[in-house]
Amino acid sequence: MRASPTCSSMSPTMPGSVTRQVRVLLNVTNDAWFGDTPGPRQHFHQAQLRAVETGIPMIRAANTGISAVVDARGVLVLVLGYNYRGVLDTILPGKLPTLTDVPTRSRIFWLSMAILSIVASFSRFGFNIRKN
User: Is the pTM higher than 0.70?
Assistant: First the structure.
């Protein structure tokens, strides 16, 4: 099985070649430095979004944070809460079939935003002609 370690759940998107080959994301993290703050929960939710973004399930192991198995849609399969010790034993969910990889989806998004910006500027400034 091919796994891709995620250096940070907040890092930029992964290359398309990585997302095509990988069946599971592995996120091993040290959330101890956050202390008892919202940090571990935010860090977990960012990792959860990474699984949704790539369409690849994630295994997350945190020493004092939230450890979990997250499916490709972001649904929690199994969770070990904040500051709990234990073992998670489950069947890994599969990745989602995607028509495009992450970089292509990013390009489509930015192209759509550019087109919407052009349409918005024309509707604001370009069609301001009144007939008498």
Answer: no
